[in-house]
């Protein structure tokens, strides 16, 4: 699974512990996965890269569809929640840009410029 998804074993175990991924155990203790699990890991990675937490992903994952290789909210409620999350990220970006602006002013005032 790690090889096929490019996700290291520790992260796969973490996803399993968080309830995002449900592996089957063989009698020897090894985990087994299906092709659906491989697609699920790709969805998880996409949502993580969008800035969502694993807790939020666990809550939202059942309501995410994939259509023509694109993740989409399957419900209006999920779309609304994702809009709120996007607004939260926008607010963070605004704060970071202001921090950067202030740092730029401080750096510009440094001696030797």
TrEMBL record:
Pfam families: MerR_1. Keywords: DNA-binding. Residues 1-63 form the HTH merR-type domain. The keyword Metal-binding does not apply. The keyword DNA-binding applies. It comes from the Bacteria. SMART domains: HTH_MERR. This is MerR family transcriptional regulator.
